[in-house]
From TrEMBL:
One Pfam family it belongs to: F-box-like
Composition bias, Low complexity: 51-66
Region listing for Disordered, in residue ranges: 51-88, 103-125
SUPFAM superfamilies (alphabetical): F-box domain, RNI-like
Gene Ontology cellular-component terms listed: cytoplasm
Annotated protein name in UniProt: F-box domain-containing protein
Residues of the F-box domain: 135-171
Origin superkingdom: Eukaryota
Lineage of the species this protein comes from: Eukaryota, Viridiplantae, Streptophyta, Embryophyta, Tracheophyta
Residue stretches of biased makeup (Basic and acidic residues): 103-113
InterPro entries: F-box-like_dom_sf (IPR036047), F-box_dom (IPR001810), F-box_LRR-repeat (IPR050648), LRR_dom_sf (IPR032675)
């Protein structure tokens, strides 16, 4: 009688089943486009894995042979796939530039078949591949990448080949500068930013209002944004509040630079960012609070509106900023509420890395403020105290403390400064390259003459002598000065400059400067601004500039004739080397321009 036996697999039967499973071949189907070992596309691909690798795992001695056999069969039926190898890109992605930069732009979305190609998305040699019209793909790439965004959008409508090239250009863009039209601004900016997944620098010129919706669109479309600049036209209004700006800065972990105009509706803000290093905000007005939690902030520019009813507490703001931003190097503050107390709060912060300090329109900043600045920050390279009430004594303190570091000094709109202080500064600051003394040496009666209005043209002799003594002369001799601004110095009647490196001179509205008392010994001059000056003075400037250029051209070697009777200029082939010929061409190209309008 046959009795049913329990099903027990023996080692022999188990081995037979494993062998059958290993030899089993599924039905032939359409081949995969990817490699079975590394997962990369097969086209043009050489697998980096060893072809002789045994798909089965190594068995280890155990007490159950059947278990070992089943493990081998399972590993054989499903061979493990190695993870795809990350491609190493040797070329950085270039910006969608309007300037002449390097000629290749790599896309972040490389096809794995041609990851080493400088022109992403092209299977063939760009010089051999032709697009519509017989133009090589490489040539089309170089032409289209120089177009502005509007031109690039129009080029995408030409044909399929151009559209594909523009898509690769948009994907490769890291920098974008746009002028946003007044209508449909949100849809326009959203459609453009969607094309640039790798964008890191964005600059917008707004002709329409800016609000939180625009910020949200930028935050969503540009996850890796590092620099953002928003400027507004005269008709546009920035409606972004302080809370909305604070949330945007906190969400953008990669943001390092933020520049924004028209910030009159902020009301107050709290900025917290560990990556932000540059912050420019303009048109600020009556801020209730300003909190900076930015330990890596190095440059800050805060321009307040020039309204007298501004209620911003600058002393508290500067004190908090100095304590929370210890790495500050450049500070620029423009406000009519700047005072000596604000300067004391700034000096108490003890910012050791401070190199540039600009406190503009602070009429309550005096020589005592200069003494506090000089005692706390002795390594300043730029100092701007335009619109302050400092005098020649303050200039003396600056020269005594900063002779070895200061290269730019701006003291425009300082009515207590005389020509003696300006001469002393240029004599005591050997590294000075830029100096602005506009509206310092002024004639107070040059704009209003009540005697002419009343019809009485006769002035007392004493008053005539007083006005005559009011005019001053200025003599500057400096070997490194490159830019000098004396705009609006109507109190000057004599000027003598001996500056071989000076290339830009501003004499706008120097109405009382006499032509016969003008001496310009500046062979490197390129621009002279003379708007609002007398016609005779403009003629004297042009004459002296042309004489200076002629003297430079006549510096070449001259030789006598054979009989020694006359000195003539030697031919270039005899007297000048190649370097002298280059110098001659450079002198001819750098003609000085006298700008009147």
């Amino acid at each position: 009688m046959h009795h049913p036996q329990p099903h027990i697999s023996t080692p022999a039967s188990a081995s037979f089943a494993a062998a059958a499973a290993f030899d089993f071949k599924p039905a032939k189907r359409r081949g995969s486009y990817n490699c079975g070992r590394c997962g990369l596309p097969k086209k043009g691909h050489v697998c980096h894995l060893n072809n002789s690798t045994n798909p089965t795992s190594i068995s280890t001695p155990t007490s159950s042979p059947s278990a070992v056999t089943v493990e081998n069969s399972s590993s054989a039926s499903r061979p493990p796939h190695a993870p795809p190898v990350r491609q190493s890109y040797t070329h950085l992605r270039r910006a969608l530039s309007f300037d002449d930069i390097e000629t290749r732009a790599d896309s972040p979305e490389h096809d794995l078949n041609d990851s080493d190609s400088p022109y992403p998305g092209t299977d063939l040699d760009p010089d051999n591949e032709m697009v519509s019209g017989g133009l090589p793909a490489g040539c089309l790439w170089e032409v289209l990448r120089r177009l502005p965004p509007a031109g690039l959008l129009a080029a995408a409508s030409v044909c399929k080949g151009w559209r594909e090239t523009t898509k690769r250009l948009w994907r490769a863009a890291e920098e974008l500068r746009l002028m946003v039209p007044p209508r449909g601004q949100l849809r326009f900016i959203g459609s453009v930013l969607k094309k640039c997944p790798s964008l890191v620098r964005l600059s917008l010129k707004m002709e329409s209002d800016v609000d939180a919706t625009m910020l949200a669109c930028i935050a969503f479309s540009c996850p890796n944004l590092e620099s953002m600049e928003i400027s507004t036209s005269n008709t546009a209004v920035n409606r972004i509040t302080g809370d909305e700006l604070g949330r945007f800065v906190a969400d953008k972990r990669c943001l390092t630079s933020l520049k924004m105009e028209g910030c009159s509706n902020l009301g107050g803000f709290v900025l917290s960012s560990s990556s932000l290093s540059t912050l420019w905000l303009s048109d600020l007005y009556s801020l209730s609070k300003m909190v900076f939690n930015c330990p890596n902030l190095k440059e800050v520019s805060l321009e307040f509106s020039r309204q007298e009813n501004d209620t911003t507490d600058l002393t508290t703001m500067v004190d908090a900023m100095g304590r929370s931003c210890p790495r500050l190097q450049n500070i620029h503050i423009v406000s009519v509420r700047l005072s000596h107390a604000v300067v004391l709060s700034l000096t108490a912060a003890n910012l050791r890395g401070l190199r540039m300090l600009s406190l503009v329109l602070g009429s309550e900043i005096t020589d005592a403020s200069v003494a506090a600045i000089a005692s706390s920050y002795s390594k300043l390279e730029l100092l701007d105290l335009s619109g302050s009430s400092i005098s020649d004594s303050g200039i003396g303190m600056i020269c005594n403390v900063l002779p070895n570091t200061l290269s730019r000094l701006l003291l425009a709109l300082c009515p207590n400064i005389t020509s003696s202080g300006i001469q002393f500064a240029t004599a005591q600051l050997p590294l000075l390259e830029l100096m602005d003394c506009g509206m310092t040496v002024c004639d107070p009666d040059s704009q209003n003459s009540p005697c002419d209005e009343s019809g009485d043209n006769e002035l007392p002799n004493a008053l005539n002598n007083k006005l005559h003594l009011m005019y001053q002369k200025l003599i500057i001799k400096h070997s490194r000065l490159k830019k000098l601004s004396l705009w609006g110095c109507s109190g000057l009647d004599a000027l003598c400059l001996n500056c071989p490196e000076l290339n830009d001179l501003n004499l706008n509205s120097c109405k009382n400067l006499h032509p016969e008392r003008l001496l310009l010994q500046c062979p490197s001059l390129q621009n002279v601004h003379a708007s609002g000056c007398q016609e005779s003075l403009i003629g004297a400037i042009k004459s002296q500039v042309s004489d200076s250029m002629a003297s430079l051209e006549n510096q070449f070697q001259c030789k006598r004739l054979a009989d020694g009777s006359k000195r003539v200029r030697a031919p270039d082939c005899l007297s000048q080397e190649a370097s002298d010929d280059k110098k001659r061409r450079k002198v001819v190209e750098q003609q000085c321009k006298v700008l009147v309008d």
